[in-house]
C-alpha cells in the first residue's frame, strides 16, 4: 500500500487526552485501541500508554473517543 | 391525566405475536418511532420516548438526566413499593453524580478487561462443565435450563463468592424482580429475601475471615472493615451484580442460539472461523438488544433532544433496542449480518451507567457460543420461533425455554 491510498487517519499523528475524573471504567477504549489505552490496576480507570499514539492508531483513537460512554477521551 | 394524555400510545406495548427478534412490529413503529414521541405509561403518567442512535447517546451522556427513581417525575412502569431506606442502599444504578461514582469505582477494577482475561480459564472450565450437563441431559434437552442459565450463574457466583448451590433461590427471585407484571408488594417481599440472604452471607464472611479471593471477601477486607463502605451498601451492590450477572447473559445465550441456528451457515461460523466470534457477538448484542423496555431517566434541567424541548421534571425512556436499529448508523438495520462491524451498538447502554460487567458478558458469550458450536455442531432448535414463550413482561427480554436436539 502506498502512502497516497492509505486512509487519511493512518498518516496523521494525533494527541489524546483523558479525563480520569469523568471515566466510568467501561473499558471500551481498551477494547478499541489496546496500544493506546489501558486500565489502572488500582481503580480500573483509564490510563494512557502513549499521549502521542503510534502512527496507524489515529482512526482507532478517534473511534475510542466516540465510543467512550462518559466522554472522557479528547483527541486534539 | 388530561384528555390529550389519555390518547397517547401506551408504553410498553405487550404483543406476543411480534416474535423474538423484532423490538417492535411495523404497526408499533408507526406509533412509537419518532424520533422523540410522547407516550403514556401504565401508571397514567406521560413520558418522552427517545429512539434515534444520536439522541440516545447524547441523552445518556448528558448530566441533566437523573437515574434517581425517587425524583418527582421519574417515569415508572409500576408504582414504587413503599421502601425502607435500607432497601435502596448500594443500588448505584439508581444514583447520580458523586454518589454513583463512589460505589461504581469500588468495582471498576474488578471487571476491567485484564481481570476478565485472567478469569477466562474459569469461564472455559465452567462452559465445558455446563456442556457436559447438556450432553448428559439429552438429546433432546432444554438449552436454557441446562446451559444458558447455569453458565453465567456459576461464573458470577464464583466471582462474588456466593454458593451456586443456592441458585434456585436467587434465580426465581431475580426473575420476579424483573417482571413488570408482579405487584409491588411481591417485589418488595422478594427484594427483602434476597437482601437478607446476601446480608447473612456477608455477615458469615465477616465473622470468619478466611482471606478468600472473591469479590465480596475483598470488598469486606478493603472497604467495609476500614469503614469506607456500609454493610447495607455492600448488600445492595452484591444484589445488583448477582442479578445483572446471570439474567442478562443467560437470555443473550438463549436468543443467540435460536438466531444462529436458523441458518446453518451462521452457526458454523462459530466453529470454522473462531476469530470472527468477537465481532459476531457485537452484532448479536446489537440485533437482540435484550433491554427492550428502555432505560429510564428524568430531566433535571430543560434540555433539547432530537428537536424537542424536554422540561425539567419530565420523564424520558431511552430505547437502546431501537437505537441499535437506526439506519443512520447501521445499513439495513433489521437484517442480522454476521459480518457487520457493529461496534457502535448501545446494548450495554451509554453514559456513566453503561454496563460495568460488559467485558465479562462479552467473554462469556464468545466462549460459550464457540464451545457450543464445537461440541454440538449439529445442534438445532426443535420449535419454531413463534412457538417459544418469550418474556414480554420482563425488563430483560429472553426465552423461558429453548428445546434443542443434536
Keywords:
heterodimer; A: 76 residues; alpha+beta; Alpha-Beta Plaits; two-stranded antiparallel ribbon; 3 helices; B: 406 residues; 10 strands
Notes on the structure:
- The complex is a heterodimer of chains A (76) and B (406).
- In chain A, 25% of the residues lie in helices and 16% in strands.
- With 76 residues, chain A is of the alpha+beta class.
- In chain A, the strands form two sheets. Chain A has a two-stranded antiparallel ribbon. In chain A, strands 2-3 form a two-stranded antiparallel sheet.
- In chain A, a hairpin with a 6-residue loop joins strand 2 and strand 3.
- Chain A is globular and about 30 Å long.
- The N terminus of chain A is likely disordered.
- Chain B is α+β, with helices and mostly antiparallel strands and 406 residues long.
- Chain B has one domain: Cytochrome p450.
- In chain B, 47% of the residues lie in helices and 8% in strands.
- Chain B is built from 17 helices and ten strands.
- In chain B, helix 9 packs antiparallel against helix 13, helix 10 packs antiparallel against helix 11 and helix 14 packs across helix 17.
- The longest helix of chain B is centred in the middle third of the chain and has 30 residues.
- The relative contact order of chain B is 0.18.
- At the A-B interface, helix 2 and helix 3 of A face loops of B.
Amino acid at each position: 500500500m502506498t502512502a497516497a491510498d492509505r486512509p487519511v487517519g493512518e498518516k496523521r499523528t494525533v494527541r489524546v487526552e483523558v479525563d480520569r475524573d469523568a471515566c466510568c471504567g467501561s473499558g471500551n477504549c481498551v477494547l478499541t485501541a489496546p496500544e493506546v489505552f489501558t486500565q489502572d490496576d488500582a481503580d480500573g480507570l483509564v490510563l494512557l500508554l502513549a499521549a502521542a499514539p503510534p502512527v496507524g492508531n489515529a482512526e482507532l483513537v478517534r473511534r475510542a473517543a466516540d465510543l467512550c460512554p462518559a466522554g472522557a477521551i479528547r483527541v486534539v | 391525566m388530561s384528555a390529550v394524555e389519555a390518547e397517547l400510545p401506551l408504553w410498553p406495548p405487550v404483543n406476543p405475536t411480534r416474535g423474538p427478534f423484532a423490538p417492535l412490529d411495523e404497526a408499533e413503529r408507526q406509533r412509537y418511532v419518532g424520533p422523540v414521541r410522547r407516550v403514556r405509561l401504565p401508571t397514567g403518567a406521560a413520558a418522552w420516548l427517545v429512539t434515534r442512535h444520536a439522541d440516545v447517546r447524547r441523552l445518556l451522556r448528558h448530566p441533566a438526566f437523573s437515574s434517581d427513581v425517587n425524583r418527582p417525575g421519574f417515569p415508572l412502569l409500576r408504582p414504587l413499593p413503599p421502601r425502607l431506606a435500607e432497601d435502596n442502599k448500594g443500588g448505584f444504578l439508581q444514583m447520580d453524580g458523586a454518589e454513583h461514582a463512589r460505589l461504581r469505582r469500588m468495582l471498576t477494577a474488578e471487571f476491567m478487561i485484564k481481570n476478565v482475561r485472567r478469569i477466562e480459564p474459569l469461564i472455559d472450565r465452567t462452559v465445558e462443565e455446563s456442556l457436559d450437563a447438556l450432553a448428559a441431559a439429552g438429546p433432546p434437552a432444554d438449552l436454557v435450563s441446562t446451559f444458558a442459565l447455569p453458565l453465567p450463574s456459576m461464573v458470577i457466583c464464583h466471582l462474588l463468592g456466593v454458593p451456586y448451590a443456592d441458585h434456585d433461590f436467587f434465580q426465581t427471585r431475580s426473575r420476579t424482580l424483573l417482571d413488570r407484571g408482579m405487584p409491588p408488594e411481591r417485589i418488595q417481599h422478594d427484594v427483602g429475601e434476597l437482601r437478607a440472604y446476601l446480608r447473612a452471607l456477608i455477615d458469615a464472611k465477616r465473622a470468619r475471615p478466611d482471606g478468600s479471593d472473591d469479590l465480596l471477601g475483598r470488598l469486606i477486607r478493603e472497604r467495609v472493615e476500614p469503614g469506607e463502605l456500609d454493610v447495607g451498601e455492600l448488600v445492595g451492590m452484591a444484589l445488583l451484580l448477582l442479578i445483572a450477572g446471570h439474567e442478562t447473559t443467560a437470555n443473550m445465550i438463549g436468543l443467540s442460539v435460536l438466531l444462529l441456528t436458523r441458518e446453518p451457515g451462521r452457526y458454523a461460523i462459530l466453529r470454522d472461523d473462531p476469530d470472527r466470534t468477537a465481532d459476531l457477538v457485537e452484532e448479536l448484542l446489537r440485533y437482540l438488544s435484550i433491554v427492550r423496555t428502555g432505560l429510564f431517566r428524568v430531566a433535571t434541567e430543560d434540555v433539547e433532544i432530537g428537536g424537542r424541548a424536554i422540561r425539567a421534571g419530565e420523564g424520558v425512556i431511552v430505547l437502546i433496542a431501537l437505537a441499535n436499529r437506526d439506519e443512520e448508523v447501521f445499513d439495513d438495520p433489521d437484517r442480522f449480518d454476521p459480518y457487520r462491524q457493529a461496534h457502535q451498538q448501545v446494548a450495554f447502554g451509554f453514559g456513566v451507567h453503561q454496563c460495568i460487567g460488559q467485558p465479562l458478558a462479552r467473554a462469556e458469550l464468545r466462549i460459550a457460543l464457540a464451545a457450543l458450536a464445537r461440541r454440538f455442531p449439529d445442534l438445532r432448535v426443535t420449535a419454531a420461533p413463534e412457538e417459544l414463550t418469550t418474556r414480554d413482561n420482563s425488563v430483560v427480554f429472553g426465552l423461558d425455554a429453548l428445546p434443542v436436539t443434536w
